[in-house]
């Protein structure tokens, strides 16, 4: 096989391959890995990151990113949990979604109307929202204790089964299908990539760049809220100070791991999902081998470095046909 | 002369070869492409050697091999009598080759002097020897007869001045060979003359110059010899006295081209665009003109004359401070490109790379970007890929765009083909008025003739066009009438018979005004 073909295959199936190697390795070394219960464990974990990662893929394809998703997840979870204690399940879901969407839209408005650079705007939003979450909960844990019927319904989102498949996985699948269609089969998706590839050109092609960015950030907020609901439902409790800590970096990491370039212009949703699954499997493997949870940070960082450096090596040693025309 | 050098070299062993650079059978492959195929030629000391060829002929690959960006797959480079294989750009610079690329490698936030000595600043102990940097730069600039303050920031310089800084940088390396890639592409007529004076100075000082250009007039004005490449192969090296433009063009494209710059004057009487006393503070002052269906209006002017801004204002990229624009008799207020497109105005920008193409996107996606809403089913929600492909095929055939497959990234196409994709993008949006800024800049001769033919055909179909160009032959050949800008004002409004190089240059430099009462 020549070099070019190898890298082409690698680009397409590399992540899948590594994930498979991980699965095979873990099934050989741990008897508990290939059990239904464990599958549910890591797929539920993967879904939380993957769903917010879907929104983040859009943000990165449009040439920006959102640092506020960790705090958004925390606030959406806190508000959702409190609402659930006093109100209905529907009200709680609506509350979480509104918080997520609201913060996303606010991010978008700050970036497009006040012309604050994305990095600063979402960094500021990250600490503001975290602050609000802490003030709102007075720093205390919220434990969802309410009528058993309500609890049972709410638990369904994070731990239930439908057609004998875990619900978070179905949520993940549904969101990725919808987002895939949105990215690849609608004018909007094409416009997102256009903005990420060359904003000047997007403006002079008559695209409403501000509106596109606003929608992208709203989508990030929306998906983060869904992640928040699934996570809250799994834990049936939340702490405003610690929920979603480092989540923004995880979400960005799985997108990059999935092959979406931070320079924008392209989005690889399937890659994002695979990235989230790979990270979840790695964490799961560490758990099964009784490694302290602190190592998970280390491993995520190493996987990310490895993935991106392989990509860097590829572009160093192999230039696809036609690169010479570029300068 | 050459023979004599050779004789001396033979008679006196140990003296220098007359050639500074000798390429022997250089080949370079990229997956699926043979970019260079056994190219051999030489450059003698103190010679201005022009390298010409269409885009994709292999010029840029060759330059990059000499500049140390790529290394050849086979063949040898003899530089200054030594067999060298350049490991990287630094190695090539140290050996005495300086490449000045079309897009300069200057750091805008640093001063001229800092740019000249970047990476090898003279030091006093641990600190920069600031005074020496400035003095050495000054000395080099004087040597070039350029009056530039070494302490000024590069971002404040004009394109022409930036080029001087690049040349000064090359000289500071004691370059024996300076390679200039399309050095005149962004220069006005005056600036080109100034550059040529500098090249002659360099030549007199014994520095060889490899001059890569599309503009044959300039090649003939400055070069001693011309080497033609075609499809990655060496075609011929000719002394300028032994050949002419026509022959070189024929050698470059492998066929005769005689349709350069010609427009059949056919336009109707109905006015498409009428611009009245348009003002933009400090940029445009009282610009008025009319444009009829199928008419091409040329806009000439030196750099900074406001001709580009005029185009941008018509496309909603710049806001007006006063004046009126009428389209088909209706007064319009164009505040964004989106509105311009809705009004049927198309725009091809002067800077393809920075504000037109989407480099990461495919040829297909680049072309259909403005018309996606139309290529959908289910009430504009889902894209109809079949329809999209069909519209691509239509325009590909109409504009003769060449690419390997529609999903190829546009960045991999030649400049001419990229430009055609952008024209297709503008046309696809059904425009009745097309604003073209430097439509053939950085485009090879063959593609240039094709673009001109295309413009002509569009005019016949009734599209009104504004052609902004810094190439006078293009303006004179293609337009039905022409305005000349000078310091933001119109200095001339010329009809077909008044359009001569002398008149246009006279107006552009502010020495005369013609036809303003119209």
Topology:
The complex is a heterodimer of chains A (327) and B (518).
Chain A: H1 3-29, H2 36-61, H3 69-86, H4 89-112, H5 118-137, E1 141-143, H6 148-159, E2 161-162, E3 165-166, H7 167-185, H8 187-197, H9 199-204, H10 209-235, E4 237-239, H11 247-257, H12 269-288, H13 295-317
Antiparallel strand pairs in A: 1-4, 2-3
Helix pairs in contact in A: 1-12, 2-7, 2-8, 2-10, 2-11, 2-12, 3-4, 3-5, 3-10, 3-11, 4-5, 4-10, 6-10, 7-8, 8-10, 11-12, 11-13, 12-13
Chain B: H1 2-11, E1 19-30, E2 33-44, E3 48-52, H2 59-66, E4 74-79, E5 82-84, H3 89-95, E6 97-100, H4 112-116, E7 123-124, E8 127-128, H5 130-143, H6 159-172, E9 177-181, H7 189-204, E10 208-212, H8 216-222, E11 225-230, E12 233-239, H9 245-253, E13 271-280, E14 284-292, E15 296-301, H10 307-314, E16 322-327, E17 330-332, H11 337-342, E18 345-348, H12 352-355, H13 363-368, E19 376-377, E20 382-383, H14 385-399, H15 415-428, E21 433-437, H16 445-460, E22 464-468, H17 472-478, E23 481-486, E24 489-495, H18 501-508
Parallel strand pairs in B: 3-10, 3-11, 6-9, 9-10, 15-22, 15-23, 18-21, 21-22
Antiparallel strand pairs in B: 1-2, 1-4, 4-5, 7-8, 11-12, 13-14, 13-16, 16-17, 19-20, 23-24
Describe the structure.
The complex is a heterodimer of chains A (327) and B (518). Chain A is mainly alpha-helical and 327 residues long. Chain A has one domain (35-312): Orthogonal Bundle (ABC transporter involved in vitamin B12 uptake, BtuC), CATH 1.10.3470.10. Chain A has helices at 3-29, 36-61, 69-86, 89-112, 118-137, 148-159, 167-185, 187-197, 199-204, 209-235, 247-257, 269-288, 295-317; strands at 141-143, 161-162, 165-166, 237-239. In chain A, strands 1-4 form a two-stranded antiparallel ribbon. In chain A, strands 2-3 form a two-stranded antiparallel ribbon. In chain A, strand 2 and strand 3 (165-166) form a beta hairpin. Chain B is α/β, with parallel strands linked by helices. Chain B folds into 2 domains: 46-64 and 87-253, 3-Layer(aba) Sandwich (Rossmann fold); 271-508, P-loop containing nucleotide triphosphate hydrolases (Rossmann fold). Helix content of chain B is 34%, strand content 26%. Chain B is built from 18 helices and 24 strands. In chain B, the strands form 6 sheets. A 6-stranded mixed β-sheet of chain B has the order 6-9-10-3-11-12, sandwiched between helices. Chain B starts with a helix and ends in a 10-residue tail after the last helix. The relative contact order of chain B is 0.10. The A-B interface holds A 2, 4, 181, 185-187, 190-191, 193-194, 196-198, 200-208, 261, 263-266, 319-327 and B 28, 30-33, 35, 55-56, 60-61, 64, 70, 101-103, 315, 317, 336-338, 340-342, 347, 349, 354-361, 365, 369-370, 372-373, 376, 380-383, 404, 408-409, 411-414, 425, 429.
